[in-house]
Amino acid sequence: MNLQPENLPTTLHPYLEKITATILPTVTLQLSPNDALTVWQSKIGGEPYLPLDTAYPVDSNGNPLALLAQFNFAEIPNIPNFPDQGILQFYIAADDLYGMNFDDQQQQSGFKVLYFDQVIEDVKQLKQDFSDIQLSEADYLPFAGQYSIEFKRTEQLISLEDFAFGKKVLDVDELYDFEEQFEGGDFEDDFIEPYNEFVSATGHRLGGYPYFTQTDPRHYNEKVQDYILLFQLDTDDAENEIMWGDSGVGNFFIHPEDLKKRDFSKVLYNWDCC
C-alpha cells in the first residue's frame, strides 16, 4: 500500500507517517452460496473435514456444535505467521449466545477451534455421514446455508475500532483522549468521520484489523492486549444469509506466538451487535 497525502483527507495529513506504519496484510473473503463443496474445501457453514479418528466437536453439555467456518490453507494466499497448509475450523454452539462465554471468552465450552496440519483427501478415511448431528431450523445460528470462499490478499490500515488506535497513531491511551489536543477543527467532524470514510474494517477477513459495533474486547483485558485478529465474519445479508444478532460481527483473536506454534487452544471468541 502506497499511502500518499493526496489520498488522505487534509485533516489527517499530520498523522500520515504513523497511519502508514500500521499497515498489515490481510486476506479478504468473498462468499457465494454453494451446496457442492467437498468436505476439505474452504467454506462457511456446511459439513466439516473430519478424519474418522476425530470426534465431532460438542459443547460442555455434549451437544454438537455447528461448523461456522473452515479454511484450507492450500487455497489461501499466504500472510505472515499463518499456516501455509492444513485446515483450520471454527465451531460454535447453536444457542442464543452463539456459544460465547461473556465471563471467559477463551473457554472453549461453547465453541471450538480445530487445526489439522495434514489434509487427507481419501473420503474413505473421512466422516461422510453427519445425519446424527444435524441441527434443526429452531437452533440459533448467525448463518444459514453453505458458502464457498474467494480469497484476496491485500493490505489494511488500523481501524478506529481497534483499541490500540490511540497509542499507535495519536500517542494517547485512548482515542478520545486526543480530542482536546486536536487542532484541525472539530474532532468528530474533522478526524473521526473522515478516517471512518477512508478506512473500514468491515467485511470478512483473515488477519488484519477488526471491526466492532460495540467495544474491542481486548481494551479492558490486559491479558489479551497482545492478541491479533485471526478471523472475522461480518453480517452479510444483502446477498447471503449471515447475521450476528442485530447486524453484528463475529471475531476470533489469537496471540501471535500461539499462531506461530499452531496452538489454537487459547483463542478469544467475541461477537457483538448494534
UniProtKB/TrEMBL annotation:
One Pfam family recorded for the sequence: DUF1963
Domain of life: Bacteria
Name of the featured protein: DUF1963 domain-containing protein
Native source organism of the sequence: Acinetobacter venetianus
Lineage: Bacteria, Pseudomonadati, Pseudomonadota, Gammaproteobacteria, Moraxellales
